[in-house]
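Write out this protein's structure.
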Amino acid sequence: MSVVQATEGTLARRNLADRLAAVGIEASTDAGSFYPTPLGVLIGLPSLVGRGLASRTFEVPVLVVSGDPLNDELVVDRVLVVADAVALALSTNSYAPSSWRSSSNAEPLPAFELTVTVTIEEEA
């Protein structure tokens, strides 16, 4: 039996999930089973943005998604509190309004998107 070794992109996503878990924020990397109730954190797919001699650097989108419309100040505040906590845990300085669609037939859900840079050292 062969063992498939995780790619650096997968390791980047795991790194973010571990950093969030360390501060008590539950995040999903499975967009297929993810549904925010009333809100959730989804770690997206990595984009390779740089290569070093023994490392790879990725930008990974992290979405704080609301299952409720953002038409009430309390709902907006609830989402922003989590977005601030995620930004702090992942050492990123910004986030922006966005949306997330769970399937091609669903209406997009309101979200805030953070883009996080992660560098993964390649194993020798």
